[in-house]
Write a structure and sequence with these properties.
Layout (H helix, E strand, L loop, with lengths): L23 H10 L4 H8 L3 H19 L1 H8 L10 H9 E2 L16 E2 L5 E2 H5 L11 E4 L2 E3 L8 E8 L6 H9 L3 E6 L6 E4 L9 H6 L1 E11 L3 E8 L4 H6 L1
Helix pairs in contact: 2-3, 3-4, 3-5
């Protein structure tokens, strides 16, 4: 069925743009029945600017709250505005492994980005990615998304994460104090903001490799201006006992 493109308005009580499509309340109930299916939300967002606005304000928020309720409550506590206005970016971060395109952030690794069914994010794991003087910050980091047998690169793991209240974090203050430069061309795949390279800033602690099960000198990650994290590592091979337990 062909859908006519509609345009965003201020949604007054007599809003003419709402005539011809369902109300927000009805759309909310439909997506609630769909359990906030992210593919359905993404397709819905492409119909018009009005639908895209509704998805950003309401649908992606409900998706995030359903997928990771405790994490979302924590990210919004203490007056944090980290999530407000960025629900779609956080929703994508929860379910999308960024991978690495040709000539992208991780130049020697060419693995397309892809959706993942389920990923665990941990605040405890996030501490391992922070220098000791920054460990009062709150960072949620995912388990690595494993891509095995990548030729010369070996077993590769991509990880992603998000800071709570990044604008007031010690990590951000340290990056600014160090005069860390933003990447000249690449941007965050989740929100399109500019990126800092934590490896170049010498802010990747040794504890990160232990947490990921990776080689110490084979970890690189970035943080964007909105506090989204994406990184890559070369994973250590499984021991025989680990393989047996699998």
């Amino acid at each position: 069925m062909h859908l006519t493109k509609q345009y965003r308005c201020m949604h007054s009580a007599s809003c003419s743009c709402s005539k011809g499509h369902l109300t927000e309340e009805v759309i909310f109930l439909i997506f609630q029945q769909l359990n906030w299916n992210p593919k359905a939300i993404a397709a819905f967002s492409c119909v018009s600017k009005w639908f895209d606005d509704l998805a950003k304000r309401v649908l992606w928020k409900e998706f995030c709250r359903t997928r990771a309720p405790k994490m979302m409550v924590d990210l919004q506590s203490s007056g944090s505005i980290n999530i407000d206005g960025n629900w779609r970016a956080v929703g994508k971060l929860l379910i999308f492994c960024s991978g690495s395109g040709k000539d992208g952030l991780f130049k020697n690794i060419h693995i397309p980005g892809h959706f993942v069914h389920r990923t665990r994010f941990s605040r405890t794991s996030g501490k391992s990615f922070l220098l000791p003087q920054c460990r009062s910050d709150v960072l949620y980091v995912s388990d690595p998304c494993e891509h095995l047998d990548q030729r010369d690169e070996g077993d590769v793991g991509f990880f992603r994460g998000v800071f709570k209240s990044f604008a007031s974090s010690k990590v951000r203050k340290m990056l600014i104090k160090k005069g860390a430069e933003l990447h000249q061309s690449e941007v965050c795949p989740y929100c399109k903001a500019k990126l800092w390279n934590m490896l170049q800033a010498k802010m990747v602690p040794q504890s990160a490799s232990c947490r990921l099960g990776a080689y110490e000198d084979c970890i690189e990650y970035y943080v964007c201006l909105n506090g989204h994290v994406l990184g890559v590592c070369t994973l250590l091979p499984l021991s025989e006992s680990d393989e047996d337990s699998e």
